[in-house]
Structure formats: C-alpha cells, structure tokens
Amino acid sequence: MADKAVSTIAKPQMRGLLNNVIKRNLIIALTMAGVAGFSFKQLVGNARKRRYAEFYRTYDAEKEFEEMRKKGLFQSC
Fold first, then answer.
1. Distances, alpha carbon 3 to alpha carbons 6, 7, 8, in Å
2. How far does Cα 60 stand from its chain's mean position?
3. Model pTM?
4. I need a surface site. Which of 12, 38, 45, 70 has the fewest CB within 10 A?
5. Is 74:68 a contact under the CB 8 Å cutoff?
6. Cβ distance 29 to 35 under 8 Å?
7. DSSP letters of 8-44?
8. What are the φ and ψ backbone dihedral angles of 65, each rounded to 5 degrees?
9. Which helix (H) or strand (E) holds 5?
C-alpha cells in the first residue's frame, strides 16, 4: 500500500524553456493587441465616424458663413 502512495515528479524542462516562454507570451500579446484594437474600433471609431457623418449631413456652410459675417468675425466682409 505504501508503494502506491509514492509517485515520481516530472523532470523540469531544461532545453528550449526560454523559446517556449517567449513563443507563448508573443501569442498572448498579439491576441490581446488584436482584441484591444478591434474593441477600440467598435466602441470608439464607429461612434466617431457616425457623429462626423451626422454633422456633415446637416451642415450648411453658407449659413455658417453668414452667421460669422453678421457677428463681424471677418475683416474683409
């Protein structure tokens, strides 16, 4: 019964450990960067693009120019 309780521990990896750790960390870093980039595009970029499109859909340059001219912001007009 005492023989069954004893087990051998696995040998530590002695060769290629640094390469394996670097490979794993690189994969994790690239995955997280991709997720962060996609999230930023969805949450910030698309909302900003939508706001710009709405602004320019309703923007009237002539009306803005006339308002600034009436306020006296131009010296030549």
1. 6, 8, 11
2. 34
3. 0.59
4. 12
5. yes
6. no
7. PPPPPP-SSHHHHHHHHHHHHHHHHHHHHHHHHIIII
8. -60, -45
9. helix 2-5
Residues 43, 49: contact at Cβ < 8 Å?
A: no
From residue 50, give the alpha-carbon distance in Å to each of 20, 30, 39, 43, 54. Answer: 44, 29, 16, 11, 6
What whole-number distance in Å separates Cα of residue 47 and Cα of residue 53?
10
Q: What does the block give as tokens for 31?
A: 């995955």
Written as one string, the DSSP assignment of 38-69 is: HHHIIIIIHHHHHHHHHHHHH--HHHHHHHHH
Q: How far apart are CA 29 and CA 4, in angstroms?
A: 43
The residues, any chain, with a CB within 8 Å of residue 77's CB and separated by 6 or more, are: 69
Each residue's pLDDT expressed in tens, for the chain with a length of 77 residues = 555 677 888 888 889 999 999 999 999 999 999 999 999 999 999 999 999 999 999 999 999 999 999 998 888 86
